Amino acid sequence: MSKEMNLTLKVWKQKDQNSPGQMKTYQAKKVSPDMSFLEMLDVVNEELIHQGQDPIAFDSDCREGICGTCSMVINGTPHGPNKGTTACELHMRHFKDGDVITIEPWRAKPFPVLRDLITNRSALDRIIQAGGYISANTGNPADANALPVSKKDADLAMDAAACIGCGACVAVCKNASAMLFVSAKVSHLGLLPQGKPERDRRVWNMVSQMDKEGFGNCTNTFACEAVCPKKVSVLFIARMNRDYALSVAKGQPDAS
Amino acid sequence: MKLDAKTPSGPLTTKWSRYKEECKLVNPANKRKFSVIVVGTGLAGASAAASLGELGYKVTCFCYQDTARRAHSIAAQGGINAAKNYPNDGDSVQRLFNDTIKGGDYRAREANVYRLAEVSNAIIDQSVAQGVPFAREYGGLLANRSFGGAQVSRTFYARGQTGQQLLLGAYQALSRQVAKGQVKIYSRTEMLDLVLVDGVAKGIVVRDMVTGKISSYSADAVVLATGGYGNTFYLSTNARGCNAMAIWRSYKRGAGFANPCYTQIHPTCIPVSGDHQSKLTLMSESLRNDGRVWVPKTKGDKRPPSQIPESERDYYLETRYPSFGNLAPRDVTSRAAKLVCDEGRGVGSSGLGVYLDFAESIGRLGKKAIEERYGNLFEMYERITGEDAYESPMRIFPAIHYTMGGLWVDYNLMSTIPGLFVLGEANFSDHGANRLGASALMQGLADGYFVLPYTIANYFGSSKKFVPSTDAPEFKQTEQAANEHLKRLLSIQGSRTPTSFHRELGKLLWENCGMARSDQSLKTAIKKIAVIREEFWKNLKVTGGPGELNQTLELANRVSDYMELAELLCKDALERKESCGGHFRVEHQTEDHEAKRDDENFSHVAVWEYQGAGKEPVRNIEPLQYEVVTMSQRSYK
Lengths: 256, 637
What we know:
- The complex is a heterodimer.
- By secondary structure, chain A is an alpha+beta fold.
- Chain A is 34% helix and 13% strand.
- In chain A, α2 (122-129) packs antiparallel against α6 (199-212), α3 (151-161) runs antiparallel to α5 (179-191) and α6 (199-212) packs across α8.
- Chain B is α+β, with helices and mostly antiparallel strands.
- Helix content of chain B is 37%, strand content 14%.
- Chain B contains 17 helices and 19 strands.
- In chain B, the strands form five sheets. In chain B, strands 5-2-1-9-17 form a five-stranded parallel β-sheet. In chain B, strands 11-15-14-12-13 form a five-stranded antiparallel β-sheet.
- In chain B, α14 runs antiparallel to α15.
- Chains A and B meet through α1, α2 and α3 of A and α3, α5, α6, α11 and α12 of B.
């Protein structure tokens, strides 16, 4: 593979939720193109700890693009320059020697910064709690094949269900809208026959919670789809708007 | 240590139904008086917490992740097994049971495994009812595929994201209980210790990972669903945050640790690319349905794969194991890869890799069909390696993936500490010495949805109700000990980072207690672990303080456990003088390098009992009795 690189990093540093933050500059030396972006940060952090300095705090877990934990804005784009790729899957071969890279946390009012690049995304959990489920207690449900689902619907539901809940859609949106996230869950469950009985209630309650959390509205710039690491389509937002309109027309469902 | 498996009497096939008929129940009005702590929100923890909440218990749930939905069950790609026999290819509960027992190399408890096979079908029904979008055929019915170690197609899947979709199903059920006020979740909260009152598990001490605050929670019972200890090896397919703290510290409080040497090495991972490597990525075993594994026939053949003609390729799995071929079980496949690499026929720059080649399948089925089946895996491979696997074969190599060992549990999933239940990968019970593909998801959900709700009621119905205050001295002392442990880590101020120690320990383990183990390698490892551990406590460097979000401290705390656990792992491997499943002792192999069991001396579970710091742990034994299964030399030829 090609040679090692030296890079300059400009990283958001913030001690805790109540302290002001600022950009700080670091040097990343001898970066191998085979490293992942987060491994590059690991190496920088190892050096910082050696020097007795505060390492860069960032979230990551599975490091294979599925858990949705990693969350950083790289050169202005959530998860960085590669389409359909989380920050943890991004590799340094996509950068070149001498590059200056800015790294910032998700920026959205409903996602307060906890430290450096780490934010609190529990607002997304509360939206799911408001109705992002099918009420089926553990017990003795019908045989799984008793209810056929057309392959088309099942595949489309899976496309929506692929959302990993990382919040990149919110981070990129100028309105900090969570519509892509919410619509993915509304569509996943609403497309399946099992999810039909609660469809109106679900969309109503989830959208209400989304508003309560302070997420903005969608103004159709489609930036969310562009940065979504799972390429969840904005068409689901249209589907959700239709479901929501229908639920409004039918009147407010019973509170959950 | 008393090891009573509490297996119900009667024929194997009716044990579980009899148990359910006879077990104690808690009446609906009383359930809300019982509180349960669940640690971990993966498939086992989330399904348990949701199901207990639905029943009316008061549940408090903890996870180290920022949300319950991110637990590492999410990364399981390939699928989940069930004995539905939808494809009409001869599957049954009995056959799933047989395959799992045989796959585990006859080192699992028969009654537990039968129960697992028995409830497998209900898991699929439950998941579908929750809206898990499993793959379907055009007729609208569920699709199946085959997996290693089985000759039937019993694996259900949701693209390459089966774990994610099953976990979201459980997480959503859990979220519903949160909304109802039945469950409270504390995320970014790590369990530091278990609290016993009069020898019974009554609570835990936790650290808020944002503020650093240490506090206690008490309950009628504690459930650990905290996953395995694969990260002891540093490089594994586990998530970065996966750790052994909950189970290890419970072991130090008296819970027996069973079969720590049973570690699974997954054959299809992306090879290591350099020292910076922070984790290894698995490529789903399902790829072996359509990919053919090969290496060059000649040593040191460095030609690109496209220039190596068919006649000079060794499809070693197909020739060695004609009836299972590329779908031989994981332990067998991993060892076969090691053998060819040891012979100098490995591929890639490090020589530690073999090819997984799709050319033949693409030729037969077309690129589109392969893309539909594995598209996201090919993309993942491309992102990590920069190579296009449609054009040239993938390079794969074995890596630590799963740990079959774990805290010992009886038929009720209760550990040797009364009131402490252990589910999923954190326990030892169902996979013996080797786990078959697509069985981890099955076990996690079986334990959480369908086993614990019965067995915990049986426990509550047969023990005295008592929840201590967290001001009780037992809690205060445990909190203080946890605080002191962290202070000690921070006070060393040496010159090496937690990661550097972790990496050194992991490399030592991988080399001496990995795919091949010997009397000598294990003794060497045990000696060297002591040296590394000593240096750890003298020369560790942790920046920052205890009362803040401090990832270096979190890691140091976890690594301090690995420094001890690694030793127990090697000790167990040393004492088990046989080869079985994932545990391969070079002294014990057949002429053609297959694992050679010693049923006469080792047909038992080894359960380690902690004796205090610096003291030798005691190895206890639970004999394994097979009433139905006939033990045989495992053969996949």
